[in-house]
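Request from the bench team (R.T.):
"We need a structural guess for the complex before ordering more flavin-adenine dinucleotide. Sequence and SMILES attached. Just send the C-alpha cells back."

Command: build protein-flavin-adenine dinucleotide structure.
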Amino acid sequence: MLVAGGTDLLVQKADEFAAAELSFLFDAGDLKGIRIENGQCILGAAVTASEIAGSPVLRKHFPGLENFFKLISSTPVRNMGTLGGNLANASPIGDLSIFFLALDAQLMLGNRSSAKREIPLKDFFKAYKELDLREGERIERLRFRLPGEKDFFNFEKVSKRAHLDIASVNTAIRFSLEDGRLFRIGLSAGGVAPVPLFLSLTAAFLEGRELTEETLVQANAVMQDEISPISDIRGSESYKRLLLRQLFYAHFWKCQPEFVNLKKVLTPITGTNFA
Ligand SMILES: Cc1cc2nc3c(=O)[nH]c(=O)nc-3n(C[C@H](O)[C@H](O)[C@H](O)COP(=O)(O)OP(=O)(O)OC[C@H]3O[C@@H](n4cnc5c(N)ncnc54)[C@H](O)[C@@H]3O)c2cc1C
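Reply to R.T.: structure attached below.
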C-alpha cells in the first residue's frame, strides 16, 4: 500500500494498515520538488498542498494562489496531504485534481524499476474511483505549461462551510484573451460527474469566441448537457447545476469584470432549467 501524507488513507482504510505492506512516499526525494523547465512547471507527486500554495514561482504565475488553497482542507491537512494522494484518491471533488485539470496537466507514471509513461491528467480518471494506474505503478510527477501574460486562471469552490470542508461543487479555468476572443481554454468541474471532469465540449464551444454575456449564456447551455450530477449529501442535482452555472460566470467576472455584466447573465432561476 502506497502511503503519502496518509490524510485520505488513515480516514478510509485505517483498519487495513496493520496487515498491509506499506511503502512510504512522503519523504521520497525523487517525488519532491517544484521546478521550472522550458516554460513548464514540474511538480513531484509527494509535494504537499502547503508547498504548492507557498511556492514563490507558482505564486508569481497564479495571483490569488494562497486564497485558492485556503479553501482546501486546513493548515495541518495541507501540510501533510500531497498532490499524488489527492489525484490517486480519485475523488470526483478532489481540489487538486480540479485545479490541475484546468491546466491540461500531464502525469508521469511509473516506478524506479518499471518503464515510465506519460498521460494527460484528464485521461487518468476513467470511471468512479477507477484510474489508469497499472499494478506496481505510482504517480511520479505532474507537469503543465505555466500561464503566460495573456492567460487567466481562476479556482472556485463552494462547500457547506467555507473552511475545512470538501466541495459540493468546485471548478477551475484557464484561458487566454486576444482581441476580446477566448483561446486555449481549460475548464474543469468537480461534484458534477463520477470523475473530476475536464469539460472538453464546453471548452471547444468557447474556443475562438468573443467574450460576451451571450457567449457565456450559450456556453452554460453546452456545459449543462456535459455534466451529470447526482443528488447526495452535498446537494441535490439541481442545486449542483445551479452552483456550477454561478461559478462558471464567476470565473469570467473575476478575471475580466469589465467584459462581463453579471446582471445580464444571472437571469432569474425558474424551476430546474439552468440553461
Ligand atoms: C479533515 C480533512 C479535510 C480534507 N479536506 C479536503 C479538501 O478540502 N479538499 C480535498 O481535495 N481533499 C481534502 N481532504 C482529503 C486529503 O487531504 C487530500 O486528498 C490529500 O491530498 C491526500 O493526500 P495524501 O498524501 O494524504 O494521500 P494518502 O492518504 O497518503 O493516499 C491517498 C491515496 O493515494 C494513493 N497514493 C498516494 N500517493 C500516491 C502516488 N504518488 N502514486 C499513486 N498512488 C498514491 C494511496 O495509496 C491512497 O490510495 C481532506 C482530508 C481530511 C482528513
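Two things stood out. The chain has two domains: 30-145, 151-265. The chain has a mean pLDDT of 92.
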